[in-house]
TrEMBL record:
Its main location: membrane. PROSITE patterns: FHIPEP. The lineage of its organism: Bacteria, Bacillati, Bacillota, Clostridia, Peptostreptococcales. The chain crosses the membrane at residues 7-24, 30-49, 61-81, 101-121, 193-215, 235-253, 265-285. This is Flagellar biosynthesis protein FlhA.
Amino acid sequence: MRILKNVVVIFVILIVALIIIPLPPFFLDFMFIMSIAISLIILLTTMFIAGPLDFSIFPSLLLITTLLRLALNISSTRLILSKGGHAGQVIETFGNFVLGGNAIVGFIVFIIIVIVQFIVITKGAERIAEVSARFTLDAMPGKQMAIDADLSSGIINEQEARERRKVIQREAEFYGAMDGATKLVKGDAIASIIIAMVNLIAGTIIGMIQGGMVFTQVLSVYSIATVGDGLVSQIPALMISTATGMIVTRAASEGNLNEDVKRQFLSQPNVLLISGIVVLTMCFIPGAPVIQISILGFVLIALGISLIRSAKVKKEKAELEEMSELISEESNEVNFYRNIDNVYNLLGVEPIEMEFGYSLLSLVDEGSGGSFIDRIVIFRKQFALEMGVVVPTVRLRDNGLINPNQYLVKIKGEEVARGEVLVDYYLALDPGNSTGPIEGIDTIEPAYGIPGKWITESEREMAEVYGYTVIDALSVIVTHMSEVIKGHIHELVSRQDINILLQNVSKGNQAIVDDVIPAITSISDLQKILMNLLKEGVPIRDMESILETLGDQGIAIKDTDMLTEYVRQKLKRTITRKYTDGSSIKVISLDQGIENAILSSAKKSEHGTYLAIEPQMVQKIVESVTEQIEKVKELLHQPVILTSPIVRIYFKRLIDQFLPNLTVLSFNEIDSNIQIQAIGIIQIKD
């Protein structure tokens, strides 16, 4: 068992020993046959794998097989020169087979085989490996950015991000190793040519001087040995070179080579039909082999007709199945709605719905390989960890009335967003540091409104090399959906969700729940407070702190808006973490005059507090806010306005009518160890 575990180590040591230790012809024959068998196994393996990383040990195998062939070449040369051209049955058999009784013609054929192996296959595989390595390394930054974009939007989790980065790193290492390993194949081909010339020239000299043979006899003996020895080394080398070319060209495949050829080569039956007709026209060329041309032409035509008929039958069968399903559905639908209770079930609305055009169904349907539902599950988990609330079930439907490439997002039955993507295309976004232009279909990214281009698979690698962030169509939809849900999550928190959250808190702190609910705050008021927090993007994971604040302040204060402000101050560490870089925060401050004007305009009624501020004053405040935001937009990706605690809620209500996504914080919501840097001030100019 220990020997089996170290069989590769033993085999490599044996190869090194072959270079030094003379081998008997019987053992040399066995090693030549093994070399051919190993090369054949490697060639077939490269044809059946789906991707290069499925055979990641190939560069190491390339080194081992090259060393094996060189060792066998040296051993065979030793026998050829020392045994009068006799180096085993394998070499003799290959030599006689190729020479065919004519040493000159046979040797020319051998030279042609060597030239084809060296110039065509070896050089081609070397160039492909070099280009693949360069493009893979150049595309790494773009791929890393795409992973970071998916991670930040919640499409993937940390584990999946690590796995993707690992794959990218393995690809870079593999193609880098292949770039160097192909030089071994090139060197092996050159060495084989030199060894063949040594065998022929040195063998002729030794045979005439030491063996006493005439020139024609020497030429016959050593030409057979030279050609045979060259072939048993060049045939494995040819298969290894072909395998090298195979494995470095498997980047764009989805299955093994056999499946890809059958699927893609036979996907256009009209091409086969036309090719067969063109081949048959060659029969009219004088002296052409009519029988062979006719056989091939009729085979192509028959194959094309057969594929066309098969496609037609499949299409008719699919249409019949679709029609029968529609008839069955209509009949079942009528019977189903005879029961009036089933009609009442139609009156409810789903919290979140998404409707898709028929071209996008392949991205959504799990039966067709779509992973949309899995991405929703991942987003729900990530969002729950960040915000402390669980996203409801997303109802997916098809919609034949919209554009085939469009999708809709509905909240409680009403459309709130829509977008359009192109299946089998990728969205390329310029992060601002791209190094070159790309061709594509101009579009606007639906989630953030960023200009982009739809590009094909063939253009993807070049776009990544130029520094573009490349995103697949499904990721575009998921990102858009996640942003829409984040913006409307406060509308989706029901009282049932509140009860579930309270039950979750009760598992660890039953006393706080019993103390606050419903003695101090009702479920409906708690719902309003949590909705206020979520509307401004404040996480509610720390439910115990929220309930403690309500227990402390809820006895004297019943206004849910004011209670929300106290809760925000309690959650200042959470708010600070969200809007700061860890040590400081850059803000736009509010002028004292504006704060006084807002406070003096606040009026209380039995339904709450409202602002009775003059329209001219509102216009001036909005203009000043807009002006300051424009000034600092280069410094701040997300502008933050800082106010006094008592003014924050009123100013937020006022500015929400014009800039709904603006972040407004109070001094009491920022942790005391954070340095505040005011880079602008909102004030009314006289």
